[in-house]
Structures are given as C-alpha cells and as structure tokens.
Amino acid sequence: MPAPPAPRRAARNGLVVLALAAVLIVAVFASFAIGAKNVPLSDVFAALTGSRDGDAVVVRELRMPRTMLGLLVGVALGVAGAVTQEITRNPLGDPGIIGVGAGGAFGVAAAIGMFGWTASYQYVWAAFAMGAAAGLLAYIVGGAGSGGATPAKLALAGAAVTALLDAFTNALVLLDVSTLDQYRSWAVGSLAGRDPELAWQLLPFVLVGLAIALLLSGSLNALALGDDLAKSLGTPVRRTRALGALAVILLTGAAVAAAGPITFVGLVIPHIVRSLTGPDARWLIPCSGLAGGALMLGADVIGRVVARPAELEVGVVTAFIGAPFLIAMVKRGRLRERAA
Description:
By secondary structure, the protein is mainly α.
C-alpha cells in the first residue's frame, strides 16, 4: 500500500499525539486515585488545588511523587528505546543494549555490598553513575578501530560490557545474603518505596536527554537510510550516533537508577508507536515518550489492583504486558521487515 500524502500523514500523526496525550492524562489521574485505598476524583482535584483535608493528603504526599517518578521513568525508557533502535538499526534494540542497565545493577550491588548503602537516595546515584560509565565504556569500545561506532560494533561492545558487569554483580550478591536481600527488592523493578524527591533530582538528566533526542530526530531519519547515504546527504554520522548514545545513557541511567531494570517498555513501545506514526523519528520520539509514560503508569496501577492490599511490582507487570505485544509483532513480521 502506498504511503499517504505528507499533509494527510501529518494530520493523522497529530491525531495520534492527541490520543496518546489523552491516554497519558487518564493514566495520571488513575495513578492518583487507585491504590490500596481508592480516592474519589473530588479528593484528587482537591489535592491538586492545595487541599490537605481527608484523602487529599494521601494523594499529595504519597501518590503524586510516585506518579511523577513513574511518568519520568516511562517517558525516559520510551524515548531511549526509540533512539537506541535508530542508532543501532536493530529492531530488538532496547535501552540496555549498550550496557547501561547492567552498569546500574552493578552500581546498586556495589553500593549495598561494599559501602552498606541501603536507602534508595543513597544507592540511586551509584546506579546512575555506573550505568553512565558502562554506556560510555561500551561506546568507546564500539567506536575503536576503523569505521567508528557502527551498529554491529555497538551491539557487540554492549553485550561484552553487560556480560562482564553481570558477572561482577552476581559475585557480589551471591557471596553475601544481606546484599542479595537488599538488591533483589531493587532489581525486580518498582516505583514503591522510593524517595519522594527522587524524581526532582533526576529530572535535569532526563530533560537533557529528551532535548538531545528531539534535536537529533531529523539526523536519525537520515541515519536510518544507512551510513553511506546519510553521509552523502550531509549528516555527520559519527556525531549523530555519539549524541544519540549520550541521550540513551542519560535517559536509561536515570530510569534504571530510579526504578530498577524495567523490561519491555523501551523495546516494545517504539514498535507500537512506529505502527501508528510511521518511521519518521520526528514523530516517533515524542510519541514514544507519551506512550512509555502511559504504559508505565498503567502498569503501576494494575500492579496495585491485582494483588490488593499487597502490590505487584511494575517491572513484573510490564513484562506481562510487553511480552504478548512482542510475540504478536514477531508473528506479523514487523520485526523481520524492520531488520531488512
């Protein structure tokens, strides 16, 4: 089927943006209202206007910080996944492909096992620092030699860094039971029990990562055509891929530090959005952010409901939601077409 004319495609994509924004708003209010104790929407609106009466305290003190953190993590992972798939031209690329997730996990394990840090506001910075260091190491290794950081070299370097750091992490957590107990509560992926100020502390890193990703969207479109053709169009391939990797490191590092290794969001969301907007990165990147935020908050709400009064961690719920979508895309041949 031929592609629709550009004006019609832009109008359709504009409707997709509005629809995703509406879904995100619904997810935000659901996150405010639904939990171990449901809060009426009247109390939610009262909390938003500054009231501290009744259940408005629950909304303001507990659910708003958690919702903002979930929104931040979802947007970061959605955009990071889209950029990763563009700079690596890998349909199975996710934000952890260059080792950021493994670096964050090692940072948490080291902070707990070696320094005795057990509070989230302590080990979150170790996770962010080690995640960023792992991503930079993978990029440096992948960029060595002739040709620079090609997609294949980036993927191989990321796999090597991930394997090395996973081995170190396993050694730390398996040699000490107390470290394992603390580490596994983070490693499952959760928004619960995080410091209320964490979202504000990580917000600058996410904003910088988002800005870089959005500014690169035009160059990423050229990169998707192949390095040689992108160069012939005047695109600085190495700089574009380096800045794209920097955006992924900032976004993924912040998300992993905040919530742990959340799976499938960065992998599945770009494919779902691409089926709605097409491959244009100028639409793909912002829409992936909106969809990622909606998925993260929706999964968190589902986790609060299915095991009430206990909670099912958001990392488990996103895996349950994301796996069927990935299987469906494989059966429909979308990943195979993308790889070709």
